[in-house]
């Protein structure tokens, strides 16, 4: 050992450690770019949508219209869900950590000490052994080991580390032991640089919520001027008094804001979260289910996703009859004496029983460079385990080696030299073949069926891995992936433009860096693709954060679990169709019932404009609108949202919902205007006119419920009957609170005739739309 090494192994003095801490050279860096709880509450409360609703509530409260404040419950629940969801997501991001919070052995003042990783300082000398994680970027100053950097780079091959080599934070030692000097701390560490880019709050990506916000934003522009106009007309022109003017104006404005639909979406998604939890799928962002329903491109990692992420010995070929009986003892003794602890050796140890039958004289650890390890035993000679081509000449290799390699298996052979000795660590004695081991990371059960199903559903699949592209392609082939033969080594692509172009030309990508993974996802998104990404390692973190929907395996790295939208608790990507079905159920069901909610938004806007132009009072009051919210919009929609619907999501939510709602909304406006004119000409009392208008509004709204329930089944028939019967009974029972009366001998016939006309018109329009849709489909 050189004197330089000797000095280094004495480590830092206490004074040097304290000096570095004062200089900020300590490994205790923590970055918090997330919003504070106060900011989250502020952002969710102080919105234009909430401001308008609360402003209306303040005016209603000020004039004593307490019974009309029931709508506030919906607003408060919506706010509470928004705040909870954002705080939950923020907390998950704050927990993001790559390097485990474990103690390490450090050399200080010539003595070994055990300290926390956050106590490390620049230039500390750390002792790291096989199986331990590297807590900070370091340079090896003494010893030799092999590092597993798969979580960082995706490359499964072990990398030999000797004096002068760099150990990256977040990697593990698979064999050997080294003294290493800390060269980076805190934010300068490789793992922190990667994860710092991911520690950015990811906004909610939801077409449903985005559509609701568009409607709210549009109506917000007209609510204030319309509200002022309606109040002035009521107070100064119609002389309705302060309370009457405020109540009439509030009803017109509240009807334009789609409060109940936001709550329904949250409830529908929450039920999906509960359903998936029973299937061992943890949903950390409930809107991710909706996103996955729209996904058209799925990026899969190889290890731990398509494969189980656990190497297993698949086949054992005994090659030397002389040793058949003693073979288990030979292999067991080799495993007992070997210090190697990589995933391949772990697989062999799981397959064979450990034995101490033969004592070791000399051990040479497995080396990725030599691709073999060896142990000299007292009784039987030297046993070597390694790559076949490194142990034997090509003409001595059994045919099973080549067939196994073609299938994508990892192949190892064990040879024995009964009289051979290990003179040095680089030269092997002449070996006799002993056994051939076929080792593989098994394809997940049902992976073939899952990939085939996803392709049938129109989802384009890309396999992105840090491993050898040929190996990845072979695994993709065995998993039945369409296009497995189209692969590329991205380490050969030097520019970002080349990487972006490759995503359109290939299906399988190997030797992909973390930054390149993110670039591939960005390119797909830039081409209007909705991208889901699965992963289990640090090398996947950047791409997971970039993807529209991120899915982590529970057996993977903690960082990927903490930042992902979904976590597959059984680490089984074949459960993805379950998530897909739940997302489709939510989107399809909400789209179907949304037309019932948007009827009120459309007719409230049109009637408000008409009232503003004619100085006529808005025909309804807030409590009447609230009853319709609960009985017609909330009740049937709540139960319909639970129904199964696996159909592929087609079309955009907002245009579809508004188009379906427009017919009924226009019918409401025509009916209200007609009743007003009839009442004026026939001298109806205000109560009779209002009652007839309200009963017709209920009837037309119920028609929308009937349409949303098609095709009929027992549950939907029950919902139709109870909705129609229930709201009319409620309107009669609570007529004093609702400020309506009963249909009279004069108004009842008018109601019956107008409803009959409404039904006929709605059926004819529906038949025309169906015929037009069929013609379009046939033309396509």
UniProtKB/TrEMBL annotation:
Organism expressing this protein natively: Enterococcus larvae
Sorted UniProt keywords: Membrane, Translocase, Transmembrane, Transmembrane helix
Gene3D superfamilies documented for this protein: Calcium-transporting ATPase, cytoplasmic domain N, Calcium-transporting ATPase, cytoplasmic transduction domain A, Calcium-transporting ATPase, transmembrane domain, HAD superfamily/HAD-like
InterPro entries xrefs: ATPase_P-typ_cyto_dom_N, ATPase_P-typ_P_site, ATPase_P-typ_TM_dom_sf, ATPase_P-typ_transduc_dom_A_sf, ATPase_P-type_domA, HAD-like_sf, HAD_sf, P_typ_ATPase
Predominant subcellular localization, coarse grouping: membrane
Membrane topology, record value: Multi-pass membrane protein
Location of the protein in the cell: Membrane
Residue ranges annotated for the P-type ATPase A domain, each copy included: 101-197
CDD domains to which the protein is assigned, alphabetical: P-type_ATPase
Protein name per UniProt: Cation-translocating P-type ATPase
Membrane-spanning residues: 218-237, 257-277, 593-615, 621-640, 661-679, 691-710, 717-737, 743-765
One Pfam family cited in the UniProt record for this chain: E1-E2_ATPase
Origin superkingdom: Bacteria
């Amino acid at each position: 050992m050189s004197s330089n090494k000797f000095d280094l192994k004495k480590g830092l003095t206490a004074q040097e450690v304290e000096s570095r801490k004062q200089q900020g050279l300590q490994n205790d860096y923590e970055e918090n770019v997330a919003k504070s709880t106060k900011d989250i509450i502020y952002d969710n409360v102080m919105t234009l949508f909430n401001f308008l609703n609360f402003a209306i509530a303040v005016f209603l409260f000020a004039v004593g219209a307490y019974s009309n404040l029931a709508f506030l419950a919906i607003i408060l629940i919506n706010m509470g869900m928004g705040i909870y969801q954002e705080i939950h997501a923020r907390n998950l991001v704050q927990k993001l950590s790559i390097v485990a919070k474990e103690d390490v052995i450090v050399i200080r003042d010539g003595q070994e000490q055990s300290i926390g990783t956050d106590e490390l300082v620049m230039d500390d000398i750390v002792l790291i052994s096989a199986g331990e994680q590297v807590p900070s970027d370091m340079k090896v100053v003494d010893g030799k080991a092999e590092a597993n950097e798969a979580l960082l780079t995706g490359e499964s091959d072990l990398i030999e580390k000797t004096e002068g080599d760099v150990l990256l934070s977040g990697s593990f030692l698979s064999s050997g032991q080294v003294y290493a000097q800390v060269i980076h701390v805190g934010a300068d560490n490789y793992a922190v640089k990667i994860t710092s880019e991911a520690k950015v709050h990811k906004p909610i990506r939801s077409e449903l919520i985005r559509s609701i916000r568009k409607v709210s934003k549009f109506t917000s522009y007209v609510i204030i001027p319309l509200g002022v106009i309606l109040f002035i007309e009521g107070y100064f022109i119609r002389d309705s008094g302060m309370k009457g003017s405020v109540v009439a104006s509030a009803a017109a404005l509240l009807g334009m804001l789609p409060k109940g639909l936001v709550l329904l979406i949250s409830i529908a998604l929450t039920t999906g979260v509960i359903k998936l939890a029973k299937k061992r799928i943890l949903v950390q962002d409930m809107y991710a289910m909706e996103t996955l329903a729209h996904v058209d491109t799925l990026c899969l990692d190889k290890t731990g996703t398509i494969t189980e992420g656990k190497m297993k010995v698949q086949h054992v070929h005994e090659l030397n009859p002389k040793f058949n009986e003693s073979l288990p003892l030979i292999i067991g003794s080799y495993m007992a004496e070997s210090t190697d602890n990589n995933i391949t050796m772990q697989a062999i140890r799981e397959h064979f029983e450990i034995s101490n039958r033969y004592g070791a004289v000399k051990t040479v650890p497995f080396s990725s460079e030599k691709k073999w390890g060896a142990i000299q035993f007292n009784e039987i000679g030297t046993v070597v385990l390694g790559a076949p081509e490194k142990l034997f000449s090509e003409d001595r290799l059994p045919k099973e080696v080549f067939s196994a390699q073609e299938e994508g298996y990892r192949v190892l052979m064990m040879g024995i030299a009964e009289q051979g000795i290990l003179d040095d660590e680089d030269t092997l004695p002449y070996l006799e073949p002993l056994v051939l081991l076929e080792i593989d990371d098994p394809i997940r059960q049902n992976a073939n069926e899952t990939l085939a199903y996803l392709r049938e559903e129109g989802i384009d699949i890309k396999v992105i891995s840090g491993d050898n592209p040929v190996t990845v392609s072979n695994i993709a082939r065995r998993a039945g992936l369409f296009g497995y033969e189209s692969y590329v080594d991205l380490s050969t692509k030097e520019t970002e433009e080349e990487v972006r172009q490759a995503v359109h030309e290939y299906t399988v990508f190997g030797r992909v860096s973390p930054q390149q993974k993110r670039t591939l996802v960005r390119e797909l998104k830039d081409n209007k693709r909705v991208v889901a990404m699965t992963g289990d390692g640090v090398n996947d973190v950047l791409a997971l954060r970039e993807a529209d929907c991120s899915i982590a395996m529970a057996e993977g790295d903690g960082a990927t679990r903490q930042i992902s939208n979904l976590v597959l608790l059984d680490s089984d990507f074949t459960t993805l169709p379950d998530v897909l079905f739940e997302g489709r159920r939510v989107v399809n069901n909400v789209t179907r019932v949304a037309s019932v909610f948007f009827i009120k938004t459309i007719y409230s806007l049109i009637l408000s404009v008409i009232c503003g132009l004619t100085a006529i009072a808005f025909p309804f009051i807030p409590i009447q609108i609230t009853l319709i919210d609960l009985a017609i919009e909330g009740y049937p929609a709540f139960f319909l949202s639970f129904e199964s619907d696996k159909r592929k999501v087609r079309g955009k939510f907002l245009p579809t919902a508004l188009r379906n709602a427009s017919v009924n909304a226009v019918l409401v406006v025509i009916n209200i205007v007609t009743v007003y004119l009839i009442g004026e000409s026939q001298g109806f009392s205000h109560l009779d006119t209002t009652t007839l208008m309200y009963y017709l509004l209920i009837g037309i709204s119920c028609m929308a419920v009937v349409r949303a329930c098609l095709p009929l089944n027992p549950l939907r028939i029950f919902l139709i009957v109870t909705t129609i019967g229930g709201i009319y009974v409620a309107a009669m029972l609570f007529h004093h609170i609702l400020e309506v009366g009963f249909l009279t001998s004069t108004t009842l016939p008018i109601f019956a005739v107008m409803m009959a006309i409404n039904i006929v018109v709605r059926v004819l329009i529906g038949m025309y739309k169906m015929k037009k849709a069929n013609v379009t489909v046939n033309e396509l």
